Amino acid sequence: MSPVTREGSMASSRTALRICPLCEATCGLTLTIEDDRVTRARGDRDDVFSAGFICPKGASFGEVDGDPDRLTAPLVRRDGRLVEATWPEAWEAVASGLGRVPAEHGRAASAVYLGNPNVHTVAGGLYPPTVVRALGTRNVFSASTLDQMPKQAACGHLYGDALAVPVPDLDRTDHLVVIGGNPMVSNGSLATAADFPGKLKALRRRGGRLTVIDPKRTRTAELADRHLAPRPGTDAALLFALVHVLFEERLTDLGRLAEHVTGVEEVRALARDFTPESVAAHCDVPAAQIRTLARDLAAAPTAAVYGRLGSTAVRFGTVASWLIDVLNILTGNLDRPGGAMFPLPPTARAPRPPRPGRGFTTGRWHSRVSGHPEVASELPAAALAEEIDTPGDGRVRALVTIAGNPVLSAPDGERLDRALAALDFMVSVDPYLNETTRHADVVLPPPPPSRSAHYDFAFTHFSVRNNARYSPPPVPLEDGRPDEPEILARLALVIGGLGADADPALVDEQAITHRLGKETADPHSPVHGREPGELAGQLTGRTGYERRLDMMLRLGPYGDGFGADARGLTLQRLLERPHGIDLGPLRPRVPEILRTASGTIELAPAAVTADVPRLLESVTGRAGDGLVLVGRRHLRSNNSWMHNVPALTGGTNRCTLQVHPEDAERLGLIDAAPARIKGDGGEIEAPVEVTDAMRPGVVSLPHGWGHDRDGTRLTVAARTPGANLNQLLDGSLLDPLSGTAVLNGFPVQVAPA
Ligand SMILES: Nc1nc2c(c(=O)[nH]1)N[C@H]1C(S)=C(S)[C@@H](COP(=O)(O)OP(=O)(O)OC[C@H]3O[C@@H](n4cnc5c(=O)[nH]c(N)nc54)[C@H](O)[C@@H]3O)O[C@H]1N2
Ligand SMILES: Nc1nc2c(c(=O)[nH]1)N[C@H]1C(S)=C(S)[C@@H](COP(=O)(O)OP(=O)(O)OC[C@H]3O[C@@H](n4cnc5c(=O)[nH]c(N)nc54)[C@H](O)[C@@H]3O)O[C@H]1N2
Ligand code: SF4
Ligand SMILES: [Mo]
Questions:
Q1: CATH assignment of 169-347+590-613?
Q2: pLDDT tens-digit profile of 449-489?
Q3: DSSP codes joined into one string, 413-480
Q4: Half-sphere CA count of 248, side-chain side, radius 13 A
Q5: Crossing angle, helix 87-105 and helix 484-495, to 10 degrees?
Q6: 360, 331, 237: which is closest to 612 by C-alpha?
Q7: Pocket test for ligand 2, best of 223, 283, 309, 642 (most atoms within 8 A of CB)
Q8: pLDDT tens, position by position, 480-530
Q9: Which atom of ligand 1 is closest in space to residue 115's alpha carbon?
């Protein structure tokens, strides 16, 4: 490059900070921006949380952001075809479509599906409840029932709050046990830590221990000093055996928590049946290894047991998630530094004096067709298709999807594909025309992340260090283009019948009035007794969502309480610190965090222990000897929507079936040759990848592939479509306590194609 061109491009080039929205690690990025285009992304070394860490996805932020297949204008269906339209035209189409369905079929006939990126956007953090309320439906589905709902249900029952999820205190623990998670690749999940790989290495360097429980020798397992490879789906039994050993060998010590925990004796009684010797064959883990792990956990100065997708999206997901916390509690590791702790996010309500709550109940309503209980106000994503395609009263006729691609991410995509095609009306808020949104009557595209503000409303709940960071939009919006907060606010207003011209600011002002009204009436609030209008007048922020963020921060645990603490957090303070504000290591929160009816940690919740007989039956019953399938993730991918960026495709990021050499030999499978995979829901083909990283009897396939449908605009992804693993499932296999689909450890048959 000649000096002249370099100078030329330098002239219009600038940098801006932006938190990365591409996974849960929430790294701070420094973006180079030339002519409103992001041309480079580096780790922000001054970021208080990520200190410069970046992964290949984050480094490709510019390519993800500038993907030419991203929609720049709304699409509206005319004469059966999706065509570009103006925003006013799109809103008219939404108003007439969504107005028509309740009028004809009632409010129960509408449904909403919320996908994963809602936890990665400001809009998704603030507006979906308003959209759901406007729809007035109980048909709420989300990616949670394909993911972490078992953990939320378990925590709901234990602590009385489904959002009270402890995270491993990564920086201080002496022994980390990872069950069914691969943070070396996923960069961590339900444990927000930038540079998870670095933190694992630091743990080893300070003499700490890493145990990994995973049927595959993953990259995380390779780093561990102990790897147990159980048969998939058997973790709950394995965990119960660990609990058994703690009781049998008198290794329990609840420490400070003892006075806050009830139900210990019930757990002791339940654990009696699960001796290491009785589960060893079922789990295929020697009893001696189980005993050693239990002793090590009890002996470690501090330890944290942490489970992720291989412990949740499984047959006994809620029971396994519960037992993970039971282990942390019985070893005295819950809520203490180095153990599993509860983060305190800056936008949470400022802590109040401890008091019993209402507790957590499920099944307040049920799904229409299969009668699945509601869990945390949601119905199973796996049941969405049947709610649409099964005739009868209350059948879903209209659907709103926000940031989701359930045709690829949920079981039996073919059925959902057909169901979506038969809806009366569907609107999708999504930047892509993909396998799901191609069925919409209106697609409303949000701007790319470079033109969106960022605050992690969700992930500050799971951060291993408390922090507050805010990125204003690095690049201004194009004229006439709404940001996603405006799209969702307007959507709520249009659904609510206020028409396409109603002012979206109404939604934010209503939220502010409501919250300030509640706070000023609460004797324990820092603003008790003050005038809501006076407080609203003090809010700063250029937009409705900024005013809401300002309000939440000021009412939060670190906030200025609208003047009560002059040095407290406000949006203004946060804006003055573009690399973020570190709020320190995690601190104990029991009993303040508890919301159970008893005001204690209810260690043996009846709703969870009710599933123990089924678990016992699975242990004593004959183990199936067929192959089972598990999922995996790739460093340069993210679920279904990052296969369209050339920088992130190719190489090892392919949809291959990983098979152990013994299985390959037995089944006549040849490396790189196609295999036919059959499950209860259908058949697919994928090339074989023989690897001894798999345990025999288990095969692995990534999800989010199958980009071979017509009518999408995913030019790059369509060239190497891969196969949709979820076609192997028929949607009937669920963890009954959480309604979460069993995506790991389900039976398949494999043969050469
Ligand atoms: N077999 C199997 N299935 C799985 C899994 C598995 O391990 N195995 N994993 C499950 C898990 S953990 C999850 S979280 C789900 C994910 O399930 P989904 O959330 O349904 O699927 P994603 O592939 O994440 O789709 C995200 C959608 O959001 C859109 N999008 C991207 N950015 C934005 C944005 O800023 N705004 C808006 N409005 N939209 C945006 C994308 O274009 C895409 O359409 O998949 C689940 N499915
Ligand atoms: N690079 C990248 N990062 C991501 C994503 C991505 O697609 N790509 N997706 C994001 C999302 S939405 C999520 S939810 C997280 C998920 O984050 P993780 O859960 O850390 O990621 P997975 O690779 O799904 O890890 C699940 C592990 O469970 C193992 N497993 C399967 N069945 C069982 C079982 O029965 N028992 C045990 N013990 N283990 C089992 C699998 O072999 C696998 O290694 O990652 C997030 N981060
Ligand atoms: S680890 Fe996650 S948040 Fe960090 S740069 Fe990579 S994709 Fe972005
Ligand atoms: Mo997820």
A1: 3.40.228.10
A2: 999 999 999 999 999 999 999 999 999 999 999 999 999 99
A3: HHHHHHHHHT-SEEEEE-SS--TTGGG-SEEEPPPPGGGS-EE-TTGGGSBSEEEE-EE--SSPPPTT
A4: 17
A5: 40
A6: 237
A7: 309
A8: 999 999 999 999 999 988 888 899 999 999 999 999 999 999 999 999 999
A9: 19
C-beta separation of 153 from 271 below 8 A = no
Residue type, 273: D
pLDDT at 623: 64
Give the amino acid at 741: A
* Phi and psi based region of residue 544 (left: phi greater than 0; alpha: psi -120 to 50; beta: remaining): alpha
Verify cis geometry, omega within 30 degrees of 0, for the bond prior to 391: no
CA distances from 146 to 115, 245, 314, 381 (A): 10, 32, 10, 7
pLDDT > 70 in the chain, percent: 98
Class of 624-752 in CATH:
mainly beta
Residues within 5 A (CB) of ion ligand 4: 147
Strand, coil or helix: what is 552? Answer: helix
Q: Which CATH architecture has domain 1-66?
A: 2-Layer Sandwich (3.30)
**Distance (Å, rounded) from C-alpha 613 to C-alpha 619?**
10
Confidence at residue 9, expressed as pLDDT on a 0 to 100 scale: 47
Comparing CA positions, the residue from 466, 460, 458, 406 lying closest to residue 430 is 406
What confidence category does residue 3 fall into, taking pLDDT thresholds of 50, 70 and 90?
Answer: very low
Structure tokens of 198? 């670095």
Q: Of all atoms in ligand 2, which is nearest to the CA of residue 308?
A: 19
Structure tokens at 133: 């309320």
What is the CB neighbour count within 10 angstroms for residue 515?
18
pLDDT of residue 11: 53
Strand partners, 601: 261
Cα–ligand 3 centroid distance for 457 (angstroms)? 17
**What CA–CA distance (Å, rounded) separates 39 from 61?**
9
**354 Cβ contact partners less than 8 Å away, ≥ 6 residues apart:** 591, 592, 594, 599
Architecture of the CATH domain 70-147+377-456+470-503? 3-Layer(aba) Sandwich (3.40)
